Amino acid sequence: MALHPEVAAVTDRVIDASKETRRRYLDLIQRERDSGADRPKLGCANLAHAYAGTDEQRDQMRSGRGMNIGIVTAYNDMLSAHATYYRYPEQMKVWALEVGATAQVAGGVPAMCDGVTQGYSGMELSLFSRDTIALSTAVALSHRTFEGAALLGICDKIVPGLLMGALRFGHLPMVMIPGGPMRSGLANKEKARVREQYAEGKISREELLDAEVAAYHGKGTCTFYGTANSNQMMMEAMGLHIPGAAFVNPGTKLRQELTRAAVQRVAQLSWDGDDYRPLGKCVDERAIVNAAVALLATGGSTNHLIHLPAIARSAGIVLDWEDFDRLSKVVPLITRVYPNGSADVNAFEDAGGPPFVIREMTRGGLMHADITTIAEGGFGSYGTKPAIEDDRLVWNTLPEKSGDDGIVRTLDAPFWHEGGFRILQGNLGRACIKISAVEEDRWVIEAPARVFSDQAQVQAAFKAGELDQDVVVVVRFQGPRANGMPELHKLTPPLGVLQNRGFRVALVTDGRMSGASGKVPCAIHLSPEALGGGPLGKVRDGDVIRLDANANTLQVLVDDAEWNARELAPPPASVEGTGRELFALMRNGANEAEQGASALLAQAEL
Questions:
Q1: Prior bond to 339 cis, omega within 30?
Q2: Which residues of 87-102 are buried (b: 16+ CB within 10 A; e: fewer)?
Q3: Entry's Gene3D superfamilies (predicted)?
Q4: What's the pLDDT score for residue 220?
């Protein structure tokens, strides 16, 4: 089907905005190809150092006849999602040798868990862990001894960070290799109910812990559709996975064969062959638009309103919230996965999963079908379903109908006619809001403000009964330059309780909300941030704020003369501990959320 005119128009807008930066980027990767990885030209001592750590592959490496694949891994066994990668490198080396290639672990990247750090000081390192991952990826690939790479990462900041670093080596063919979601445990909706009960003091800490352990119980990503699983949906839509790899459970034969196929596929994409597909050419303007469409069609994480622009800029592509806003008006919501529904990602996969979404979006002209992918079958193969048949990996045509139309639907019967993301603008600045999980009667909230400088203050006020009213909770000095822009997920239960009690409630913040945020309207990523002069610094307790997702506005209803005369509130004292002082350079140099909230992008003018 012909491309939808608005998708075409947004793509043209991105191409035009990116004209100069994309040209510079393509020139860079061409220079890197001309002068970069060429092992036969490296000095003998250099090569000896590179080969000294391996035994069974050394002769193959010395021959220079096959691709040497650099593995960049986010393995650790503190994160359930990344614990799955423990045996991958040794298996991948065997699978590479099967097709005349070799593989080495080029380096590891940090992988921290927002689920562990939520509400605590470690969360202030979370966003900038993405930039650290990008730097670590660059270090790993800097040895110039690899003709391709395999990137092992799955969770929130890890996939964006891997891509941001890897795209600076965009002359190399690369593949993203996911590990899959854990099997379903306690239902996400029940988990949320228990959290709200605990917030109200109705159950004990031990009962809460029992519920949490039942929800997060094994290896793999968490099963809700938050940032980690939104990552995987986007990688499918960009053609950077082996097709259909996103939501296959760890420890299965299918998972293993998809990883084998990924290693062996990247070995076929060498630049001295006839199917050279460098990462920097795969990640073009069309692929970035596809990722944005996938996010909107599935009600994905708001965190990607920061991460996708950062990924794009690393490839010389300028994407901003206007593009998301325009796409959201024409891309229908065709999935309901928690927090936008009751199903988890395993049920989503069973009902059709990412292949079903991609097939429907392509049929409707809402995705670019002509992007360059790592898959031999092109983008059409991402609308098919992988399976093991007769001990072989195959891809099957999907049924015309969804396996469960309460979870995923065809384009002719969507859950909603648009994607559920909107920009809010007004005298407080510019923010974004995800309304796909918010009841329509909550899209407009007008109420007095209560102003806080951190989420602990909000929780204390909630416990004291001070918020039992219609209220717009303002949490400021949470932007990237203030404290690293932590997620404020700990506010989800108390705000949900207030809404359940019948109050009109909203959150306004220059910080982030969890990728799993849901039913309470939240104006987030407010820019400019309060630190440094953003108008959020002028808000006082009792000011009436109007959040209107229908009119796309966010206003404090204060007389203009009074508003202009107000002084800015002083920021809280800077804090040390948990390594936060080491990240001062990143905080001080970060750009705005809409540009990616990155010191790397700002300093390198990407």
A1: yes
A2: ebbeebbebbbeeebb
A3: IlvD/EDD C-terminal domain-like
A4: 94
Residue 253 CA neighbour count, 13 Å, CB half: 8
Tens of pLDDT along 54-68?
877 888 888 777 899
For β-strands 148-152 and 68-73, DSSP reports them as: parallel
The secondary structure of 89-157 as a DSSP string is: HHHHHHHHHTTT-EEEEEEE-----HHHHTTSGGGGGHHHHHHHHHHHHHHHHTTS--SEEEEE--STT
User: 104 is written with which tokens?
Assistant: 């080495």
Judged against a pLDDT cut of 90, whether residue 549 lies above it is answered with yes
pTM, two decimal places = 0.95
If you average pLDDT over every residue of the chain, what do you get? 93
User: What CATH number has the domain spanning 421-573?
Assistant: 3.50.30.80
Confidence band, pLDDT 50/70/90 cuts, at residue 88: very high
Residues at the binding site are 155, 222
Give the model confidence (pLDDT) of 353-407 as tens digits.
999 999 999 999 999 999 999 999 999 999 999 999 999 999 999 999 999 999 9
Measuring CA to CA, which residue among 13, 6, 19, 136 is closest to residue 75?
136
Residue 253, helix vs strand vs coil = helix
Helix then strand count (H, E) for the chain reads 25, 14
> Half-sphere exposure (CA, 13 Å, Cβ side) for 120?
10
Closest CA to 524 of 301, 226, 333: 301
Burial of 470 (0-12, 13-18, 19+ CB in 10 A): middle
503 CB burial (10 A radius; 0-12, 13-18, 19+): middle
Element (H, E) at 174: strand 174-177
pLDDT in tens, 418-473: 998 899 999 999 999 988 889 999 999 999 999 999 999 999 999 999 999 999 99
Residue 396 parent element (H or E): strand 392-397
Give percent helix, percent strand, percent coil of the chain, each to the nearest 5.
Answer: 45, 15, 40
Read off the pLDDT band of 604 (50, 70, 90): confident
| Pairing status of strand 392-397 against strand 384-389 | antiparallel
**Helices within 251-396 (DSSP H only):** 253-267, 279-282, 285-298, 304-314, 321-328, 345-351, 353-363
Nearest-Å Rg of the Cα atoms of the chain is 24
> Who's near 161: CB < 8 A, 6+ residues apart?
109, 129, 130, 131, 132, 133, 134, 136, 137, 153
Looking at the DSSP bridge assignments, the partners of residue 475 are: 452, 509
Tokens of 316: 């010389």
% of the chain surpassing 90 pLDDT: 78
What is the distance, to the nearest Å, from the Cα of residue 590 to the centroid of all Cα atoms in its chain? 18
Q: Collapsing DSSP states into helix, strand and coil, what is residue 330?
A: coil
CATH 3.50.30.80 residue ranges in the chain? 421-573
Q: Extract the annotated binding site for [4Fe-4S] cluster.
A: 155, 222
Backbone angles phi, psi at 314, to 5 degrees: -70, -20
Handedness of CA 280, 285, 287, 291 (dihedral sign): positive
Alpha-carbon separation of residue 447 from 363, 469, 543 (angstroms): 44, 9, 8
